[in-house]
Amino acid sequence: TVTKYALIFEYGGTVWKNFIFNAGLRGDYQSDYSLGWYPTLSAGYWFSKNFKLRSSIGRSFRVPTFTELYYKSPSNIGNPYLKPEKGWSYEVGSDIFIGERISMQSNIFYRKQSEIIDWISENNGSLWNAKNIGRVDIKGFEQKTTFTIDHKNRVQITYSYTASDFEKEFNYLSKYVFRYPVHQFSFLSQNSLPYGISGSIGVSLKKRKTESAYNIVNVRLDKKFRKNIYHLEIMNIFNQSYYELIGVPAPGRWFNTGITFEL
Fold first, then answer.
1. Which residues of the chain form beta strands (DSSP E)?
2. Reported pTM
3. 251, 171, 250: which is closest to 210 by C-alpha?
4. What is the pLDDT of residue 35?
């Protein structure tokens, strides 16, 4: 049995004409852990209607899940002695609008986290244990650009880069923490096609820290007939072999079709 309480204070609004400000404070109590206070602060300033700078800082807190604490199977063993994750997050970014058709969002981030929880294996993946693995500093940036032709035609391109610094050397397999994508690219095009069909194509590429890169292509078609919408999706169209989780092959090429009824 776990008892939880949370108390949240938040204030925000436009302080001056172009200055946006938000401050918050959260108090968390859980019967297995002591009371903690976690502040957040964010601000943004519109230099013009097309250009905004923003920044934020906040302290985070995550208690272990019941799975991480108590789950047990032939290949996964939880740990009832796990400590909560804690950390500080910092971010600086900008929003730029070129006319009404082009928007660009840029973010630079830095997260300093301690007592990180991960499932690790010291015997090539045959047995995974939940453990606090120490302190990890994560940094990187993200760039998203959107081209809007009209309300039916749009293209979005996103790229992110992530790097980490670990306080000590590790010689084990990591199920989550050290399998993050160092490089991640995505392309999404939503278009109006002949005969009243709307379609989209999405391309994503990931390069994880210690693994080869892979790319996935998905296609979707929608057709409205009277009040109903018929759709067809082809996921992983080129039947790419890849793993989101170690030891669990992701689906190859697969199809999905359906009808949305409007009454």
1. 4-14, 19-30, 33-48, 51-62, 76-77, 85-98, 102-114, 117-121, 128-132, 136-150, 153-166, 173-174, 181-193, 197-208, 214-225, 228-235, 243-245, 248-249, 254-260
2. 0.84
3. 171
4. 86
